[in-house]
Amino acid sequence: MEFFCYHRDRPGSLELRNQLLEEHWSYMDRYAAEMIARGPTLTSDGDAPTGSVHIVDLPDPTAARTFAFGEPGYQAGVYRDVMLRRWHNTLGRTMWEFPAGDTGDNRYLVLGFGLGTGQAADLEMPPEQDELIAYGPLLSDDGATWVGTAVLVRAPDPDTARAVLTSDRYADIEVHRWQFGGRS
Question: What is the reported pTM?
Fold first, then answer.
C-alpha cells in the first residue's frame, strides 16, 4: 500500500529541525527500500524548510502510522501537523527514476483537496508527463474514496505547477516549493 505523508513544520521550529537532521535521515534510511519520493517543502524564496514530504510503500495503515508518528522530528515537536493519506503511484516509479534527475530548481508539491462531492478529478495523468516526478490520487483510509490529488512536478513557476490539476474540481489547491530530499 502506498501512502503520502506530509509533516508541516511548526512556526519557530527551524533550530530544532536542524538539530535533528541526522536523526531524521537515519530514521528515513530504515525505509529506503519503501521510499517512492521524499524531500522538504520550502519557503517561497527557497531559503528555509516548511515541511517534509515522504511517499512510501508500506504493508498496511498501521505501518504507515508508525512511520509518520515515529519520525524523530514529530516526536520532538518540530511539526504542527501531519497529513497521512493512502495514495496511488500513477506513474509507477520513484523520484530517483525521474528522467531529468535530481538537479535544478523549480520543483513543487501540488496538493488538491476534493470538494467532498461529485466525481474524482485528475485520475488520469496530464498528457504532458515529462515534468511529473510523482503523481497520484489521495484516498480515504480504506482506499475506496478519492479525497484529492498529490503531485510533485518540475515547473517554471507556481502557477504552472498549479495548472497540472483541474482547478474547478477542487475545494482548495496548495502549491509549495519542494526539493529532492535525502543524504547528499
Answer: 0.95
Alpha carbons 107 and 127: distance in angstroms, whole number: 19
Gap between the Cα atoms of 22 and 25, Å rounded? 5
pLDDT in tens, 97-155: 998 777 777 999 999 999 777 678 888 877 777 899 999 999 999 999 999 999 999 99
| 95-108 as b/e: b if 16+ CB within 10 A | beebeeeeeeebbb
> Alpha helix (H) ranges present in 7-162?
14-19, 21-29, 61-70, 72-76, 158-162
Cell of 46: 527557497
Nearest one of 139, 134, 80 to 107, comparing CA atoms: 134
